[in-house]
Design a protein that fits this description.
Length: 454
């Protein structure tokens, strides 16, 4: 059974992700770690306390003392793990709807566990061979106060405070009732911003909006930006590791455009950056302009983290990496996605010119997507071989990291089977909408022709 996906374990809380299950994962992780002490944190979900209790019990039963840090953004728990040199378990379903919950495992270096470590824990889970402490050696739980404060202090020391404070921007903040509600308002105030908020009470029912910071959920934030005449709108997901922006006119900033703007400020000649195979042409263009290199991984943050680690081991400088969904790494600060840190780095750019101008060079790209349904395994195979033939015949660079990605220099097209639905997804991006449309059409036509008689 595959328990750990590309971003930990997630599922319907108290249905798929039950206390029993959480305890088993904790016992397996605690056994693999063999650590004397493990930290446990959670986001604001209604089921978070219940699952964190189960995780703490599981850890205590293998003999680990437990630091209960309470509600904290995932990057805040990662900072604690690194500072204390202890592994950690984060109870969160990140951007998933309120009924979901999950677990993220963090190493004693503060970094999410790599695939190989997760596979090892998965084996222990399957074999149900857990360490068991004697009655006088079970772990003790203690409540640790001040973790959020320490996290914010850490952030303040890592960004250009003076530059932001001098500009004294007004920031409209929508932490979406998540863990960032307890840290981001204070952080941006201490940075010298005027802060106005919406959906800023921590609330596991998420009454104002769902935890995912995507355009349909950000109407409140767009209105708040306009009403308060803010310079920047910032939205987080449920566990505060992502940041999505709204410009000073109250219009959405595309995640890919924000990533491109941050990358342009960060990348120099010889640097490397990492993104997933659905990377935007905007980042491709920024990387080329900077004289840097771009490495692509299968979709999912675990894959990106593994590749960053490898590159750094080889001596590369990887100042920025990530995806267009607002999940961005600044590995020289910390190999973790951090919504508050990302937003502060973006504010450094906004201190110089209006948000809309910061991202203007990265606008004007067009994305086209189409889903191909298949009825049977035979149809799926026929489609994929037709796509493979079309990809190999095309006059473009072919990347087989995850599906088929064709890079034409000025545009790209990607065809990959969905991991969760009976679909093959076809995406393309170009400055010219017709070009993107044609690239998708060509791929779709090849696949559909092949299934006509399958
Ligand atoms: Mg998240």
């Amino acid at each position: 059974m595959k328990v750990f996906g590309s971003s930990g374990v997630r599922g319907l809380a108290n249905d798929e992700v039950t206390p029993t299950f959480a305890m088993r994962v904790a016992r397996a992780a605690g056994t693999a770690w063999g650590a004397k002490r493990v930290a446990v944190g959670r986001d604001t979900r209604t089921t978070g306390g219940m699952l964190a209790d189960a995780v703490a019990s599981g850890l205590a039963s293998v003999g680990a003392a437990v630091d209960r840090v309470g509600i904290v953004p995932t990057p805040g728990l990662q900072a604690y793990a690194e500072r204390e040199g202890v592994p950690a378990v984060m109870v969160t379903a990140s951007h998933n709807p309120p009924a979901y919950n999950g677990l993220k495992l963090i190493g004693a270096d503060g970094i999410e566990l790599a695939r190989a470590d997760l596979d090892g824990i998965e084996e222990l889970l399957d074999g149900r061979e857990f360490a068991r402490a004697d009655w006088d050696a079970v772990g003790e739980s203690r409540r640790v106060e001040g973790v959020r404060r320490a996290y914010v202090d850490d952030l303040l020391g890592a960004v250009d405070r003076e530059r932001i404070a001098d500009a004294a921007p007004t920031v409209a903040l929508d932490p979406g009732h998540g863990a960032g509600a307890l840290t981001s308002p204070g952080f941006f105030r201490r940075l010298g911003c005027e802060v106005v908020t919406v959906n800023a009470q921590p609330d596991g029912h998420f009454p104002g909006r769902d935890p995912e910071p995507v355009a349909p959920n950000l109407g409140d934030l767009r209105r708040l930006v306009r009403a308060s005449d803010a310079d920047l709108g910032i939205a987080h997901d449920g566990d505060g590791d992502r940041a999505i922006f709204v410009d000073e006119r109250g219009e959405d900033v595309e995640g890919d455009a924000a990533l491109a703007a941050l990358a342009a400020a960060e990348l120099g000649p010889g640097d490397a950056t990492v993104s997933a195979v659905n990377v935007s042409q905007r980042l491709v263009d920024v990387v080329r302009e900077a004289g840097a290199t771009l490495e692509l991984t299968p979709i999912g943050s675990t894959n990106i983290i593994s590749r960053i680690r490898e590159l750094r081991t080889e001596g590369a400088n990887v100042p920025i990496a990530g995806e267009g969904n607002g999940g961005i790494f600044f590995p020289n600060y910390r190999l973790a996605r951090d919504g508050a840190y990302t937003a502060a780095r973006f504010l450094e750019l906004v201190a110089e010119r209006p948000t809309s101008e910061v991202v203007a060079p990265y606008g004007g790209y067009h994305n086209v997507r189409e889903n191909l349904d298949y009825g049977s395994a035979a149809q799926r195979e026929a489609m994929l071989s037709a796509i493979a033939r079309a990809a190999e015949a095309a006059d473009a660079d072919l990347d087989r990291t995850d599906g088929y990605r064709l890079d034409y220099g000025d545009a790209w097209v990607l065809a990959r089977p969905s991991g969760t639905e009976p679909l093959i997804r076809v995406y393309a991006e170009a400055r010219d909408p017709d070009r993107a449309e044609r690239l998708v059409d060509r791929m779709v036509a090849a696949a559909e022709e092949a299934t006509a008689d399958a």
